[in-house]
Amino acid sequence: MKQIKINKLFTKGRTLFLAYDQGLEHGPSDFNLDNADPDYIIKIAIKGGYNGLILQKGLAEHYHSHYSKKVPLIVKLNGKTSIPQIKSIAREICSVKKAVDLGADAVGYTIYVGSEHEPEIFNEFGKIQEEAHNYGLPVIAWMYPRGKAVGDELNTNLLAYAARVGLELGADILKIKYNGDKEGFKWIVKCAGKAKVSIAGGHKTDDKEFLSGLKNVLEAGAVGMAVGRNVWQHNKPLGITRAIKKIIFENKKVKEALKFIR
Ligand code: FBP
What we know:
The chain is of the alpha/beta class. The protein has helices at residues 22-25, 38-47, 57-62, 96-101, 118-134, 156-168, 182-192, 207-219, 229-232, 237-250, 254-258, and strands at residues 15-19, 52-55, 73-76, 106-113, 139-145, 173-176, 196-200, 224-227. It has an eight-stranded parallel beta barrel with strand order 1-2-3-4-5-6-7-8, surrounded by four helices. It is globular and about 45 Å long. 1,6-di-O-phosphono-beta-D-fructofuranose binds at residues 19, 21-22, 25-26, 142, 200-202, 227-229.
């Protein structure tokens, strides 16, 4: 089996990614005059020392190419807008080969676990996972329970099932939403086995609440975070980055980390 080049995405066994695919997923309602500019985000990723920046291929091609090798690139291979209300499937929109040509260090793909389109999603992801691994590229899977059959998308048992599905399907890193249940998250991490668990940041929230959630999931066994809005919607994006890094990489308490948001 080809060696998967995953170490580049980690520092001391932990990781911090900056996610910026929301322009496709949510639209410009997430943005202001600063963060609508991809250059603004890429500079945060570089200055903040992120382990990876998550982009769709258009931004990778038009923007990241000017900063190549300054921050690891994670190319998202599927996606959808929120306009058609087709909530439970996001088709492949970039090939693994294209991601490789763009200089990707990893690829990402959203899996809607429990979706009525699960067979197509699994089929598409299966091919992507095999091709990416043939290139030695790590695969990051957004494991989001979603669809008509899914009641509470944040139910702990369902999130544990989603984590297990990510492991079974061969993802290297999972991105999972945190539901505030710290004890339950230990079970989620257990079910993920050798797949490493990171959490999504979620909508912009209070600094203390946000950092406390991060601290809890790390204590429950997660390896880090793939955060978007809580950083680039922050009025001090590098300040909150410093605080996040204190918690992830230096195991600082929330109270201490908060002092670094200057
Ligand atoms: P945030 O940290 O801003 O929540 O980003 C995480 C993320 O997974 C993005 O990568 C993605 O665009 C978005 O959330 C999708 O979330 P949803 O499907 O719930 O709108």
